C-alpha cells in the first residue's frame, strides 16, 4: 500500500490508529498501574506540566510506543518539556521513525498541550 499523507485523506484526520480506550490516557495509566488513587486524586497525573521524565516515559510506553518512549527518556523530556515541544522537535529531534513520530505528535503531544491550555485557562 502506498503512503497517503494524512492531509490528503480528510476522513482520517484526527482519527487515531491506536485503540481508543473508553477511559482517558490518565485514567488508563491509573488502571494499568494498579493505582488505588483515582486520576482526580492525583493532580500530578492530571497536569502534564508536573510529569517527571519517568511519567512521560510511562505515558508513551502505555500508549503503545515502548521503543519511542526510550527516546523521550534518553532526551530527558519531562512534562514541561513535552508541553513545549513543536512538531519538528518530535519528528527530527528524537531520532525516531517518522510514522510513530507523526502519531505521537498528532494524537498525544498536541492533545496534551491542548488539554493543558484548556485547564490552565479555566
Automatic annotation (TrEMBL):
Q: Where is this region: Disordered?
A: 18-43
- SAM domain: residues covered: 48-114
Q: Which Pfam families match?
A: SAM_1 (PF00536)
Sequence ranges of Polar residues compositional bias: 32-43
**Record GO biological process:** negative regulation of DNA-templated transcription
- Gene Ontology CC: nucleus
Report the SMART domains cross-referenced here.
SAM
Molecular function in Gene Ontology: chromatin binding; histone binding
- The protein's name is SAM domain-containing protein
State the organism of origin: Scyliorhinus torazame (Cloudy catshark)
